[in-house]
Amino acid sequence: MSGAAARTRQARPAGCGRGHSWCDRTGRRRHRTGFEAARQAPWARTDRDLTPGDRFRMGSNTTTTVATVILQLVPERRIQLTDPVERWLPGAVLNGQVITLPMLLNYTSGLNHVNDPDVLKAFTGQDARLWAPDELLAAAVRHDPLFAPGTAYSYSNTNYIALGLVAEKASGRSLADLVRERIAGPLHLRNLFLATGTTRPGNRTLAHGYEPDGTRIGPLLPACTPPDTAFAGPERPAGHIDATWINPSTEWAAGGIVSTSKEWARFDAALLSGKLLAPEQLKEMLTTVAEEPGNLNRYGLGLEQVVTPCGTIWDHVGQVPAYSSWDFTDSTGSRTASVFASTIFDLAEPKAGAAVQALMNAAVYTMLGEPGPSAG
């Protein structure tokens, strides 16, 4: 695994002095209300040294920001949650008269995932084509729905691609502008923004991300992946390629946000404490539906309710080429934790997967101030 970073907020780790803040020789930054650490493989340092303050591609955590924007438009009477998709995107979605905005927000619409082979080529960097959001939606709806609207749950990027288009049409603003004006600006988040296919978040501030090269990746891919799927990018040691600069246009409203762990913590804290949404809309966001059978977790509107041995918390997971992130917060936004890893498919290796799982467990326990397993 090329690198990982973790951050917890509010729960003070044992051994941290009150009122003090410092960096130790291993790159950790400690203080009374939080803990940050970053580690990386020695070979990855030739691209840049990984630090806890690096920008990171947040993947599907993007959906939390898009859901926030959608819910902000409700009390402004720009949209209603009872609106069918057909009102805003006429003719674009099968069953658009029946699918409502909450069904898109909580993945119960039945819309299939964007499985188009040409989209996959762009997603993996094999093709530099920039995909427009309406093209992504059209590619997705060529596939049959997964189920009748409102009858089940299934994660699908298509839902939030559609929601991004709805937000733009209802507001008259681009989604990137909406994120900047309604979230990043009011919260003074200089590193949180929606990247597009032509946006490069800055060589000196973006953590580099890696995937296994073509000789290693085959056994690590899901069984349904088309043969010969591989990521494009400059070769790196230990059987890796640098996938940092694969254009993110295939993700957009479903995965295009860039942030840092500290700024994401500020966003989560503001959201759950009621600073971004009116009480009625925050209640809507935290109203959940069941996920897959046997899964104790539940999904709200852009947030997941997660059951832990210490109690229920809120989180979201994000993955885009070369980046994985897990972000947790309590029900009031007063405690947060994030774990970032600069890969997706290296985590399919048992040792790396177990290490990241241990890191997540430790981060959540620390966030909640509970004794628990150490990440080692």
Distance between the termini: 16 Å
Number of DSSP strand runs = 16
Query: What string, H for helix and E for strand, traces the elements in order?
Result: EEEEEHHHHHHHEEEEEHHEEEEEEH
Please state the CA-atom Rg, rounded to the nearest Å: 20 Å
- Spatial sequence of strands, sheet with the most strands: 2-3-4-1-16-15-14-13-12-11
* Uncertain residue segments: 11-32
Could you tell me the strand content as a percent range? Answer: 15-25%
Report what the structure shows:
With 376 residues, the chain is of the alpha+beta class. Helices cover 27% and strands 18% of the residues. It has ten helices and 16 strands. The chain has a ten-stranded antiparallel sheet, sandwiched between helices. A hairpin with a 4-residue loop joins strand 12 (298-299) and strand 13. Helix 1 runs parallel beside helix 6 and helix 5 (133-141) crosses helix 6 (157-171). The longest helix has 19 residues, at 350-368. The radius of gyration is 20 Å and the shape is globular. Mean pLDDT is 89; it is low at 11-32.
